[in-house]
Amino acid sequence: MNRIAHILSWVLSPILIPTYAVFAALWITPLAMLPADIRWNVVIVTALVTCVLPAFAIMLLYWMKIISDPGLNNRTERLAPYVLTILCYCACAWYLYSIHSPHWMWMFMVAGACTAVVSCIINTWWKISAHAAAMAGFTAMLFRIAADHIAIVPIWPYIAASIFLCGALCTSRMLLDRHTFWQVTAGSANGFLMVYLLTM
Asked: Which segments cross the bilayer (predicted)?
């Protein structure tokens, strides 16, 4: 069970969720009418900015012994990675805005940055779950797509799968003793509300 929990924690890492979200947005909304090479370019740039760059920076901090765990399980070592993540989300939002993506799409990244700011502030005294916040934010994006009636495929199976994965991820974080029930609940509320409200 712990092995599954570890796999879920890595596969649904906060630095991967933005790429999943952009991929979903480009394949289940009218944006799917764009040429495939354009869509893949957007996914790749998003992955580089919000995944590869933060991952490299975290490993660099680890190699320099500024942080003791690349998984950032020590609450007191999260400030620098949080700040970097916020900057990366902002950079990706600017990129999506510059290529004239829909308002809700680039605002998803702004909402991600705002979620990280809230998490960073709370993290100074309490270890709120970034994993839960990211996955709940992804779920909120799907709900927003459904609410705005812009899905070109049946959206509810995707929403159901996302809710299931969010629950499984939160359970995994508790099984691994990374967070308590209230920490994953607070993280989920932070991510969901921020994305759903800011992408209106």
From this structure: 7-28, 40-63, 79-97, 103-126, 158-176, 181-199
CA pseudo-torsion sign 98, 141, 57, 46: negative
From residue 134, give the alpha-carbon distance in Å to each of 33, 138, 165. Answer: 27, 6, 12
Instruction: Please tell me whether residue 99 adopts helix, strand or coil conformation.
Output: coil
3-state secondary structure of 58: helix
In order of 14, 74, 82, 137, 146, the CA distances from 126 in angstroms are 18, 11, 14, 20, 33
* pLDDT value for 183: 97
Cα(49)–Cα(157) distance, rounded to whole angstroms? Answer: 29
pLDDT digits (tens, 9 = 90+) for 50-100: 999 999 988 888 888 777 777 666 767 678 888 889 999 999 999 999 999
DSSP code, position 155: -
Of the candidates 180, 161, 160, the residue with the CA atom closest to the CA atom of residue 170:
180
Task: Measure the CA–CA gap between 36 and 51, rounded to whole angstroms.
Answer: 21
Flag whether the pTM goes above 0.70: yes
Compute the average pLDDT of residues 37-42: 98
What does the pLDDT read at residue 65?
Answer: 78
Tell me the two tokens of residue 112: 């991600």
Tokens of 59: 């490993």
